[in-house]
Specification:
The protein has 498 residues and is α/β, with parallel strands linked by helices. Helices cover 22% and strands 18% of the residues. A 6-stranded mixed beta sheet has the order 8-6-5-16-17-18, with helices on one face. Strands 22-21-19-20-23 form a 5-stranded parallel beta sheet. Strand 10 and strand 11 form a beta hairpin. The longest helix is centred in the last third of the chain and has 17 residues.
């Protein structure tokens, strides 16, 4: 056979790439004609708040700026403004090691940065090493139209509705709440709770993280700083204001410095907290019992409901993408409605959650049959990623499966094809990047939750889905039902591929 007629799985004429259709739901990319003026830069990137954060600690001598690809056109201008106003050394992280939604502590440590300013969309995954300031950006949104869309989709004012939103549009939530009014008394607006820095010393007792409790339409706030800035205690700003010079004051909660150690975010799924009834029995007075409250804190979003979340419909402000998909799979018993501020389109989400879960269940069956597993390290900055790797190794060893530990950076098919002896991969990543379409690769890719279902008898498929691996630590790795004997499975080598 001549070399001209031979073909392999790794060669193509590129026609499929040229003709591939790109999803229209991505965020518009700015071109040269969309460059912002200095006033617009100060407002969009909240330069005043960035300067305040950098100057809050004299140790912040080397500052890393992380931008998503679509905002890199403004990176040099923003860095120049911050260097001029702070006198600190500012560096731009040109390419992220993993997803742009995650804080890239690895790239920041390569330049010996002492803190990170993360711009754009964020998954709000707990970080491990460096102080982080989140600047989501002031994306344009017609709040009045968004409120009108909400009223059209939910004409009954007493219905139970939960409002979730992309981090890009957190700046408009106070205005949305104000325009919606108090007549939607059963509508709950979630709040953002940012992760706190985690101490590298695991034995030091942590302090409680800054927790923001969600309120009804009558109250809402957002937190955008994961470092204890030098402020006068706990301050809450009810609205966003802009000065004549383009300076900004973003709604937020700043935590007064307490210790250098913080507790990582502990997800609470469906935890019920009933407020106790008070009564003065000595005076014969009796107070009516308060309704039971259901508190939820997942994916950097916190809300408290009077009914279980399954009884609520969800109104999502944002674009179609990993964030929405992640929320729909984890709250798969809720009907979702969405409003896209970029296209100004609204719709009832028709993602077939049952079909998507059925596909994931099929991957669980493939994981049960697999003999060799590749543990893909898709993050080096998320808290407890080493713990989940060790947990998976322990589980795979008891299940009699061989495993490789592979650091791959960003996933692609040619890179993963180098490990053809692997039957299935399990990806350690943030919740929004862990749901990988296995059809794009030669071997299936599952989440840690799916691998645990495949290997542990005590972990059953119930239809409730978990994308955040940190939620797996709430249960022990083994129970009495997991009676599989430990096998002599030698530790396979680890690899790094970038």
């Amino acid at each position: 056979m001549s070399s001209a007629s031979a073909s392999t799985a790794f060669s193509s004429d590129g026609v499929d790439i040229i003709s591939r259709k790109i999803a229209s739901s991505i965020i518009p990319v700015e071109g040269p004609s969309d460059r912002k003026s200095e006033r617009e830069l100060r407002r969009y990137y909240e330069i005043t708040r960035c300067v305040r954060f950098i100057k809050s600690d004299p140790k912040f001598e080397r500052v890393a700026l992380q931008f998503p690809d679509r905002l890199l056109c403004d990176a040099a201008s923003v860095a120049s403004l911050l260097e001029k106003e702070t006198g600190r050394s500012v560096f731009i992280l040109g390419d992220t090691s993993y997803g742009s939604c995650c804080v890239d502590e690895v790239a920041a440590e390569h330049i010996q940065a002492s803190c990170i300013v993360h711009f754009g969309q964020a998954c709000l995954t707990q970080t491990r090493r460096l102080p982080v300031l989140y600047v989501f950006g002031c994306e344009a949104i017609d709040t009045a139209e968004c409120v009108a869309t909400f009223r059209r989709l939910f004409p009954e004012k007493g219905g139970h509705v939960l409002v979730l939103y992309d981090t890009l549009f957190s700046h408009c939530i106070d205005e949305f709440k104000g325009q919606l009014g108090a007549e939607y008394f059963n509508t709950m607006i979630s709040t953002l709770v940012l992760p706190e820095p985690v101490s590298p010393q695991p034995d030091t007792p942590p302090t409680a993280p800054a927790q923001v409790t969600s309120e009804n339409v009558s109250g809402s706030c957002s937190c955008t700083c994961s470092h204890p800035c030098a402020t006068d205690g706990l301050r809450k700003h009810s609205e966003t204001t802009q000065g004549n010079d383009g300076s900004d004051q973003t709604p937020g909660i700043f935590k007064e410095p307490e210790r250098d150690v913080y507790e990582s975010e502990t997800p609470e799924t469906g935890h019920q907290s009933a407020e106790s009834t008070t009564g003065d029995t000595e005076r014969g007075c009796q107070t009516e019992p308060k309704p039971e409250r259901h508190s939820y804190r997942r994916f950097g979003r916190s809300f408290e409901l009077v009914e279980p979340v399954e009884e609520y419909r969800v109104f999502y402000i944002g674009i179609e993408g990993p964030t929405l998909t992640n929320l729909m799979l984890n709250y798969n018993k809720c009907q979702f409605y969405s409003y896209n501020p970029f296209t100004r389109e609204s719709r009832r989400e028709t993602l077939n959650v049952n079909k998507a879960l059925g596909r994931r269940y099929f991957l669980v069956q493939k994981a049960k049959e697999a003999r060799t597993v590749g543990i893909l390290i898709g993050t080096l900055g998320a808290a407890k990623y080493l713990d989940i790797i060790e947990r998976l190794k322990h589980i795979l060893k008891h299940a009699g499966k061989k495993y490789y530990t592979i650091a791959v950076g960003k996933l692609n098919a040619p890179k993963m094809a180098n490990f053809m002896e692997v039957d299935i991969f399990v990806l350690i990543a943030c919740p929004e990047n862990s749901l990988v379409d296995s059809q794009d690769f030669y071997k299936p890719v599952v989440t840690p939750y799916e691998m645990e279902i495949a290997c542990l008898r005590s972990r059953e498929w119930s239809g409730d889905y978990i994308t955040d691996y940190q939620e797996l630590f709430s249960s022990a790795a083994f129970s009495e039902e997991d009676s599989a004997a430990e096998v002599d499975c030698r530790l396979m080598p680890s690899f790094a591929s970038w």
